[in-house]
Amino acid sequence: MDFRTEFKPLTVQPQEIEDKSFQIITEELGEHPFSEEQFPVVQRVIHASADFELGRSLVFHPDAVRAGIEAIRSGKIVVADVQMVQVGISKNRIEKFGGEVKVYISDKDVMEEAKRLNTTRAIISMRKAVKEAEGGIFAIGNAPTALLELIRLVKEGEAKPGLIIGMPVGFVSAAESKEELAKLDVPFITNIGRKGGSPVTVAAVNALSLMAERLG
């Protein structure tokens, strides 16, 4: 049996593949409302998801990109809501400036406290994270309850994040949590609707770290 295919890839060079992908994204996206500094984030989100609707639904606080770059270059902590986000972030660029990527959801004390209070580990993990990551980037791609708790902590003055990237995916509270985030007067990157997830949240962080690195 012949399993050969007639299809041949345009290129097998990684950088050429990425460059071609970004060219296609730019051409197919067409006119858009994003600024020059926001567009690299949009590109990488679409690149990670192949979803133009998701890309077009991104919402930026006016200071979001600047705040994210500044947090990275200042060596602030990047807090991930789940391990999948932590694993996907390009840590070498974060660590280059003295920062680190941390996730608290599986910490023993977090699990014990969540069990004691009969609540989610995501909620307790945010309560722990805000005590250690003032001025840092909170990257939430999975847990709406983590985002809602972080929003509560910001409103009550217990959290002072440098940037919140909130793009949790799902059917229960995901869209609503992002609507609440967009009302905050702190730098944020989010999107409208149920779509989102760990890969696109990672893509946003990596876009910011690339921009931070290119500043020298």
Which features characterize this protein?
216 residues, alpha/beta, 52% helix, globular, precorrin-8X methylmutase activity, Cbl_synth_CobH/CbiC
Rg value: 18 Å
| Low-confidence runs of at least 5 consecutive residues | none
Q: Give helix % range.
A: 40-55%
Give the beta-strand count.
6
Write down the overall mean pLDDT.
Answer: 94
Given helix and strand content, the structural type is alpha/beta
Q: What string gives the helices and strands in order?
A: HHHEHEHHEHHEHEHEH
**Separation of termini?**
55 Å
Please summarize the sheet with the most strands. 6 strands, mixed
Q: Order of strands in the sheet with the most strands? A: 1-6-5-4-2-3
Strand content: 5-15%
Number of helices: 11
**Outline, from the CA principal axes?**
globular
What does this molecule look like?
Helix 10 links the parallel strand 5 and strand 6. A six-stranded mixed beta sheet has the order 1-6-5-4-2-3, with helices on both faces. It is built from eleven helices and six strands. By secondary structure, it is of the alpha/beta class. The chain starts with 13 loop residues before the first helix and ends with a helix. The radius of gyration is 18 Å and the shape is globular. Helix 7 crosses helix 8 and helix 8 crosses helix 9.
Topology at a glance:
Elements: H1 14-29, H2 39-49, H3 52-56, E1 58-60, H4 64-73, E2 78-80, H5 83-88, H6 91-96, E3 101-103, H7 108-117, H8 121-132, E4 137-140, H9 144-155, E5 163-166, H10 174-181, E6 188-191, H11 198-214
Parallel strand pairs: 2-3, 2-4, 4-5, 5-6
Antiparallel strand pairs: 1-6
Helix pairs in contact: 1-2, 2-11, 4-11, 7-8, 8-9, 9-10
